[in-house]
Every structure is written in C-alpha cells, then in structure tokens.
Amino acid sequence: MSAGGGTVRSRRLAELSGPAVAAGFGPDTIVVQPTGAVEHHGPHLPLLTDHLLAEHIGGAAVEQAAAEGLDVWQLPTLSFTKSDEHSWAPGTVWLDSDTMFDTAVQIGRAVALTGAGTLVFANGHGGNVALLQVALREIRKRYGLKTFLMPTLARVPGPDGEDADELGLGIHGGAAETSMILHLRPDLVDMSLAERWVPEHIAGFEKIAFNGGPVSFGWLSDDFGTPGVVGDASRATASYGAVLWDHSVAEAVASLHEIARFDPAVRRPAVARPSAAPDTVPVEPAVS
Predict the structure, then answer these.
(1) 67-98, pLDDT tens digit by residue?
(2) Cα–Cα distance between 21 and 169 in angstroms, integer?
(3) Mapped to the 3 state alphabet, what secondary structure does 165-221 carry?
(4) Cα–Cα distance between 123 and 106 in angstroms, integer?
C-alpha cells in the first residue's frame, strides 16, 4: 500500500492519512488492536508490563506478517482496560466492564468504517480475555467484521527451569513475564525485590484452576497471601525472555496467517442453471 504517492514504511494505522486508509483498505485488510494494561505487577515490575507485551510482540508480529505478504496494520495499543482485579493496588488504572466492552465494540465500528474485513485483538492482559470474547461476537453481529482474539505472550518452559517451581500457577508477575521485561526493558526491572510468590495452598486442586481447568473462579490479586504476584519471579532471566520473545512473535505471525485465510461461512459451489436448447424459441406471454 502506498500513501500520498510514496511507499508506506510503517504498519501503524494511525501514521497513515485518512485518504490513504480509504483508498487502500479492503476486505482482505487485517487490523490488529493490541490490548495491554496499566496495573500492579508486584514490587519488581513496572505497571505497564502488559502494555509492553501487547505493544512490542503485537507490533513485531504485524511487521513480520506484512513482510510475508499480509495486508495487516496495527492500531495504537489500548492500555487502560479491565484490571479491577488489581484495583486495590495504587497505580492501577482500569475501566469497568461496561466501559471496556463498549470501547472494544466502538473500535470495531470504526474499523468496519475503514473498509477492512478483519479485526484482531492482540491481548497482553489475562483479565481482558472473557470480556473480549463476548465483544468479538457483538462486533461480528453489528458490523460484519471477522473478529479474533489472540495472546501476545506464548509460554514455553524455561530452558534452565526458570518456571519449574511455579506448580503451574505462574500467571502474573512470575518467571515468564519478568523474563520478558528483562529482555525488553531491563531498566524497568528490580530483581533485588523479586521473590517466589506461589500460592501452594491451591496447587493441589484438580478441577479448579486459573487457566484451562473445568472450574473457573473469581479472584482478586491480593487473595493469595502474596504482594499481588502469582508466580516465581526470583528465577527470571533475560535469556528466558529472549526464548519467549522468539516463540511469541512466531506464534503470533502464524496466527495472523491462519486468520487471513479463515472464513467461518460455508461456501457451496454455485449450481449452474439449465440453459434453453439452441432451437428453443421463447414464447411471448399472452396479453389480455
């Protein structure tokens, strides 16, 4: 796509002109909306941890997918989202669920007006997931866009066992997130304050789990006897962060390629209508 007669170097939608969007976007255009958070991540990590994950991983994935031929563009990261599970902690800035839902749907409305066919939320904050899943259908229903939600942080085991002692509970401010910020912005991490904060008293439940279990539960981040962290930050390393970065970007790019070719509608082959024989003379209707 070109704008103003020149080649566009950036894949950031907001850096385009309005006429360039109107002229260049179409049904095959994918718009990616990163969603992060500004919320408590313990004493060792910055409030904008989830913003950094959404912004950097989402942006790298868009750039790479575009270089591989996709018509994909990135909106500015939405940083104030549904973080009320951390509302007890100073510094957290959150939207209530109604406001966040309406914001997501109205972003969908605006994207539909660009002429793009697909909206993808690239999410860096777990507290947004359930709400955004509902918003996907609402946007689809109201505006006809194909809508998707994908994570930005794709977890893999630490190569040196960085997450091995989290008992499957490393969901917030633990080894993975701390390692990622050590990779992206080491100046914002204070490892002298990082500890192991794993709520072992809930590790033995078979049905009830944060992610993937058959039974979900409502929780606030100060429920577990930790300083709002659930995981083992003490073993985080920048090298683990680099592994997570490579894997996360690769997974996001692969997801965008699948999204580009996915269509939920059943496409039945057209049935040819029988044509009149060459010697058939049409009969004029009787006029009364």
Answers:
(1) 999 999 999 999 999 999 999 999 999 999 99
(2) 43
(3) CCCCCCCECCHHHHHHHHHHCHHHCCHHHCCEECCHHHCCCCCECCCCCCECCCCCC
(4) 17
Contact present, 231 and 173 (Cβ < 8 Å): yes
Under 8 Å CB-to-CB from 88, ≥6 apart: which residues?
220, 221, 222, 228
Residue 251 in tokens: 């997974």
Query: Is 38 within 8 Å of 46 (Cβ atoms)?
Result: no
Whole-Å CA distances, 221 to 169, 224, 271 = 13, 7, 58
Q: What letter would DSSP give residue 154?
A: -
Find the DSSP H helices in the chain.
18-24, 49-67, 97-113, 129-143, 175-184, 238-261
The phi and psi torsions of 47 (rounded to 5 degrees) equal -60, -30
Give buried/exposed letters for 73-82 (b at 16+ CB in 10 A, else e). bbbebbbbbb
pLDDT digits (tens, 9 = 90+) for 146-196: 999 999 999 999 988 989 999 989 999 999 999 999 999 999 999 999 999
Q: What is the CB neighbour count within 10 angstroms for residue 261? A: 7
